[in-house]
């Protein structure tokens, strides 16, 4: 194959965004939207309205103090509540009001969200390897069907136990399965030039899903009807089996060269290019240097520099996820005002970040922007915790700080996907991203429980979220910069990658890369 022919094929299928890539990308994005819907549905379906004890009418004539969880009798004794009256200003009925998940049972609401996040963790661990073995498309479509079925079934639960089980299933297939495989299909369809921007696009569609949760919640105040609507969103995914193509790279790696060739020729035809792949061109496009040894997650910890880098990066994933979901899932307690408006505002705060972050990281580097975003975002969380919000001015300041914090954390969270991929050698790159994602899912599982600490002090959750972000932002300065540097290929290159390169080295003692430059 001539040099010109090879360059032409690569530019069509990887380097440029033709009609084929855009069509497939739009289809890949839809699971990100439904993932946002399912993962944030708790904010409306499981909302906790203001409430107080329900007491006999005659008690109102006596000198008693009626609280949220107990009644102070006139003789000084305290009686715990067994029934409650809920404020209906913003909410009709939710799982909290139907199943009395307040006061001593408040932890069960946290458990519901935690179970969903744990499902996402399980999905990443189980479905990731299955997608590598059986194909991205099969796992994608199976996940789409499962989230459509169980998203609807959740609306017909009359008890919290089956509801919690379904939440776990939605985490596995809605939060992990469909989203993860859609993301992988996109990354394997486009070249390095477009991966950052298209990765941010996935995050943006997730944010749109969260905004949709707020919009539907505003108009529908019955949680079962609302959950049914959320579940029906997944219907938009049911055509993916016929519309989405399998990863060409995966097909080729499995020896299914004829299928890979057919899809590649289809893409060339849709893009109005020469629709014929000649003998030997597939090998040129997809053959990579082979390692004689296989590697896994534990290999990231075997050598000293890669071990420290991995611990640092995993904490980065952990911190970003903790703060991201901590702010997004607690808008009703962190902010005063219409909870639907606050949720939509905080969720949509991601979008400006996804617009300017790709430019910033390609201009100033991954390390510096990630660190700055986390340091300022964490500081904003702590400032919001100590700002009084009992006045209009104070409330506006708190809202501004929370939105700023969410905007910046969303940016750093999106950056670390590509940052991690660029930092690790090819043979463990997937393991590194998978390990980071597992740490992120672990922290999002803990987020609802940290939120319960507001029972001791309303400021405590925000202070914890902000402090974790500050610490991680500082530690990020010790990671190597990856901008305009070739990615390592072997474990040896990975261990030597970025030797002496920290934000404090100021160009001194930095080793020169011996890694060969890769093709665009």
From TrEMBL:
Origin: domain of life: Eukaryota
Membrane topology: Multi-pass membrane protein
Membrane-spanning ranges: 107-127, 139-161, 167-185, 197-219, 310-328, 340-361, 368-386, 392-419, 431-450, 462-479
One cellular component term from this protein's GO annotations in UniProt: membrane
Compartments, record wording: Membrane
Principal localisation: membrane
GO molecular function: transmembrane transporter activity
Keywords from the UniProt entry: Membrane, Transmembrane, Transmembrane helix
Location of region: Disordered: 488-520
Cross-referenced SUPFAM superfamilies: MFS general substrate transporter
Domain Major facilitator superfamily (MFS) profile as annotated: residue spans: 27-484
Name of the featured protein: Major facilitator superfamily (MFS) profile domain-containing protein
Species whose genome carries this gene: Artemia franciscana (Brine shrimp)
Taxonomy of the source species: Eukaryota, Metazoa, Ecdysozoa, Arthropoda, Crustacea
